[in-house]
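batch job 7 of whatever, protein = Short subunit dehydrogenase
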Amino acid sequence: MSGLVLVGVGPGIGLAVARRFVREGMSAGLVARSEGTVQAAADALGSSDVLPVTADVTDEVGLRSALDRVVGAHGVPDVVVYNAALIQADRIGDLTAQQHLDAWAVNVVGAITTAARLAPAMAERGSGSFLITGGMPVPKPDYASLSIGKAGVRTLVTLLDQQYGAAGVHAASVTVSGGVAPGSGWDPEDIAEHYWRLHRQEPAEWVHELVI
């Protein structure tokens, strides 16, 4: 059975994306920092092929262990979605150096850890999608650390494509340009369809950043 690994599952985009892929018959490994959050998502999906695992994306050893558990249970994934982000209002000068590093660790380094652990095996197999939730198509001074992090995501996607694209791994980001809420222009269920379409694209059609 083909499988999804979703890092940073929550009640918004994460759950909607997991639901969309599970509906297609995929197994799912869900990762979140809070046991309550990840278990609630697993319960909402209502599938026996869903494995909830707790890990903090800033803990390299813990995250790698969580990913290994999912691979051990479901095999090398067909699609990986990195959806973790530290969303906070801050301007240049508001944060200490350590606080900026903490935000970068969630917004970018966790995705690097996830890719380093899973993308080589996907490339060896010759197929797969590595999708990252992006944002901030234009940097916003009131969200400095997040703007910087999302710029890092774009660069990471480019690097992943350069390193693994020729081996069949589709790297892409979904840049969400507004507030996510049911019934809005950024309804999570609608957003989830974009992830599914990216995953289903043929190599000749690959898009590496989708702005919605």
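notes: The chain has one domain: 3-211.
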